[in-house]
Amino acid sequence: MQTGIRCMLMRGGTSKGAYFLAEDLPSDIAARDRFLLAALGSPDPRQIDGVGGAHPLTSKVAIVSRANEPGIDINFLFAQVVVDKPHVDTTPNCGNILAGIGPFAIERGLVKPTGNLTKIVVRTVNTGTVAELLIETPNGRVNYEGNARIDGVPGTHAPIPINFLDAAGSVCGALLPTGNVADEIDGVKVTMIDNGMPVVILAAEALGKTGYETPKELMADTDFRARLEYIRLRAGPLMKLGDVKKQVVPKMTLVAKPKAGGHICTRTFIPHECHTSIGVFGSVTVATAAVLPGSAAHPYSVLPPGKVKTLSIEHPTGEFSVRLEIGGTEEKPVVERAGLLRTARMLFDGHLFVPESVLAKPASKKAAA
Ligand code: NQM
Fold first, then answer.
1. What is the pTM of this model?
2. Are 278 and 320 in contact (CB under 8 A)?
């Protein structure tokens, strides 16, 4: 026998995920995670027996409920379902899957459209971060079609502008969890920073790379990847994340001078696969590091003038624009607000089935012996 749970598949930005109402999923976390692993087909490098896309960017889940907090409409819990391990990680946030929360909340009737544009305030439960999403809702329905283009997604779609008000220290407790704008690990200058996503930023050239390689070229260099992971594991405790061996944070971003008209060039590992573009909070965090004098990113960035800057972050399939509102002083700038543009599209709505036995409590080892 199989059990089905109501699910919507949605592309959010450059990611794709399974969106659920919290009330439809098991309330017991162990049972919920068993369901999610089976539903997406993990652990299996091909995720052949589930709807996961066999890559971290397409093995994601959104768990959504109405908020009961003034000023907040929706609570969103993000879950990264690890492709090849039986692990569901709810430590980080995902700004791409976040983009789909607005349309999903309206499609499921959690938020009523208000005219041509509907503003939805979402709290990401994982990190406490609050974001404002603007969804086009002509005639009381979500509009998915439009002229907005984001690199990494073919075609154009309706724009979803997103503003973040308070992303600093989302997981690490502080923007610069070591208290320093730069540190050294294994002889390499790094900036350990969290403006929505814990990221270790380091110069590509410090690891013998140009920073312009393709993800495939970087993935093929096993010695380089081992060194990157060595640095990541050392960074984890320094970033107050503890042992990060099994965690999907911190992410690792190599930086280089821009070479396609942008303001900085990046290659990001999430944390073991090389991203084909760059994450949303990843971009906000890299952009923040770029404006901090003394950081590992600052010497590689070409900054536009002014307190309000739009930084174009180059990545393997194009660029990602982040608008920063900067306060503080020239020596100690403070990023007060970050904004960006995403798109999303509803792909499927229905029930996602797993074998009934998946939800049954597994017999304890003692009982089974
Ligand atoms: O940084 C990839 C993505 C992400 C996460 C990752 C994201 C973000 O591209 O907010 O969006 O870093 O694992 O979806």
1. 0.89
2. yes
